[in-house]
Design brief:
Layout lengths: L13 E4 L13 H9 L20 E12 L2 E9 L10 E2 L2 E3 L7 H13 L6 E6 L3 E2 L4 E10 L12 E8 H4 L6 E7 L2 E7 L2 E4 L5 E4 L3 H15 L1
Parallel strand pairs: 2-8
Antiparallel strand pairs: 1-10, 2-3, 2-5, 3-4, 3-9, 6-8, 7-8, 10-11, 12-13
């Protein structure tokens, strides 16, 4: 079923947060704990398997990297802000990643290749620890999130055509539902709901920034929350 596009998500009213749900405990957000969780995953069901259908094109497979940087103060998620001129998800906060190509051995290979192409993160800094279930976007991409630990000490080289900037958010902030906002968008009788996880912090240049994490990125992070809290 077609769905109305949301052109200005930050203007959509906030219904509330999910502060009534427990945050993932800090001891479960260490590198060692995450490795063990993926080695012995719980029985669980993704909360948000997709966000509807806006495109008439045939589905395409893609994968993204969920890069968890091992900082001294805890794990941080490395995210990107896409440039404003792109056809899909322009200007949005995203994981590095993209479409599966014929030369890719699997979805992990896709995520690693795309991450290296988009932000220049060297593969020898990346340890893949598992994957999450597919997520289907409104633009007809069937996306596999590939979760990885990242050793610090890297230098990024952004593809200026696709990536406007890269920045980090503490994983603990994202795994606390008190920071998950619920929105409802209504237009000409149609209705959509979505999550956002707004973050204010330092950009790559050290200057304060406000980042509106929403849509597919926020939904996949919510699924990661469900995986870790189950």
């Amino acid at each position: 079923m077609s769905r109305v596009p949301i052109l200005d998500p930050q203007s959509v009213p906030v219904l509330g947060t999910d502060a009534h749900l427990p945050a993932v405990a800090m001891e479960e957000l260490t590198a060692a704990a995450l490795v063990q969780r993926f080695l012995a995953p719980p029985i669980w069901t993704p909360e948000i398997p997709g966000d509807g259908h806006l495109s008439d094109r045939a589905p395409s497979h893609a994968s993204v990297l969920v890069p968890l940087v091992q900082r001294a103060g805890g794990l941080h998620l490395l995210l990107t802000r896409r440039t404003d001129h792109l056809r899909d998800h322009a200007g949005q906060i995203s994981f590095p990643g993209g479409r599966v190509e014929a030369e890719d051995a699997d979805v992990v290979a896709t995520a690693l290749r795309e991450t290296e192409e988009e932000i220049g993160l060297p593969r020898d800094h990346i340890e893949v620890i598992g994957t999450l279930p597919h997520y289907t976007t409104v633009t007809a991409f069937v996306v596999t999130p590939v979760v990885a630990l990242v050793q610090p000490g890297f230098t990024l080289a952004l593809d200026s055509f696709e990536v406007a900037e890269a920045f980090e958010v503490p994983l603990a902030f994202l795994m606390n539902p008190a920071n998950h906002q619920r929105h409802r968008f209504e237009f000409e009788g149609a209705q959509r709901q979505f999550l956002s996880m707004p973050w204010s912090g330092a950009g790559a240049d050290g200057e304060p920034r406000h980042y509106f994490i929403w849509g597919a990125t926020a939904a996949m992070l919510r699924n990661l929350y469900r995986f870790l809290i189950s």
